[in-house]
Design a protein that fits this description.
Layout (H helix, E strand, L loop, with lengths): L6 H30 L5 H17 L1 H38 L6 H30 L9 H27 L7 H26 L30 H24 L5 H8 L4 E2 L5 E2 L8 H22 L6 H26 L8 H28 L5 H23 L13 E3 L2 E3 L2 H29 L5
Length: 465
Amino acid sequence: MFKKHPKGLYVLFFTEMWERFSYYGNRAILSLFMIKALMYDNSLTSSIYGYYTGLVYLTPLLGGYIADRYWGNRRSIIVGGILMAFGQFALAFSGQVYAAKDGFGVIFFIIGLTLLIIGNGFFKPNISTMVGSLYPDEEIHKRDSAFTIFYMGINLGAFLAPLICGGLGDTGNPADFKWGFLSAGIGMIIGVITFYIGKDKNLVTPDGKAVGMVPTKKNKNHPDYVKDAPLTKIEKERIAVIFIISFFVIFFWAAYEQAGVSLTFFAESQTNRVVGWLGNYIVPASFFQSVNPIIIFIFAPLFAWLWTKLGEKNREPSSPLKMAIGLMVLALGYVVMVIGGGIAQTGIKVSPMWLILAYSFHTFGELCLSPIGLSVVTKLSPARFMSMLMGVWFLANAAADWLAGQLSTLYPINIDGTTTVHYLFGYAVKDLPSFFWIFVVMAAVSSIILFLLYKKLLKMMNGVA
């Protein structure tokens, strides 16, 4: 599987690995930093987290447009990476001075999040686009496998990040959060250097043409001028599919991204994290965010192999069908949390296995949906709008992350252990099972609707599966 792919894939693999180390290192401790250092309550923490992560995935729409029209993928990735590194360093400084009564730490907290939001807009859509650009049209069948391998890089970084950034920052001493943010910034710098060193030699098409360069401005009277050519009927239908599947992934990520907020609250307050055979060592709540990526890293090669083998036999499920399966598997993960939450609601701190089992289901659902979605955008997008349409995919992530934060504000157990009843469209969220049922229903209903639509979507994809 690995020998069949160009070297450029592995340059992007390691670049993205370090960027994801930076992002997920930040995510592992961000909500805990707000609660333990800035002294925000669960509701305000969830809301800020939702707006921040939503904006992180909103700016790629603009970043993709700038890359398509002016900068190219390479320049955008380098600029975005540098901005994100400085964002992490600003958060580290916020962690250093968070206790200042003049609010100096909060100012740098806002500056840090802002730089991360802008930087991600330039970085995220462009590196994903470059993966697809390494393959000619006649090798389009390799892209699902390539994106799954690429996804392994993402999750290798995501696995290491909570252990290192969380281990340094989430120590029980709020003053140590700065070391977690600092390590995330250093990881981002390593990612930029990796990309810069490897880009010229390896980021090329099979015929040696460089990918990701600054777009060439052509004369409108020249026959090669295609940037603003009208969309064909097939192109319009394929773009419509991108928008439709992007809508459905909103509900997947809104449930999945509870990992950074409500599931972290559950790990912090409702999970027994004491390991007796390690001298009663208390596992940091941030460590649980490594469960998902390590399972992906183990099983991603199996999924890549499975899609390739089924494709060779013309039995591979279509991309929309894979995504519908992913949503249903995610719903099963929250069924686990409904049961575990019911036990925790009695006041007993539950076994970590409830979270681990739930994250396992979430991971299998993710492997059916996320790398497949990235691949489908590159296959369906007209070349002249590929980065911008990748931005649309991340726009769906933006809506999902914002929704994730707002739904997490409904978490019924407060920091002090008291319970508050919330209402969602008249539905009373009065305990942990009723909270987790929201995500079971949301994911399952979305899956069923997508199952019903997938044949129509397949027709609109006009031969791209």
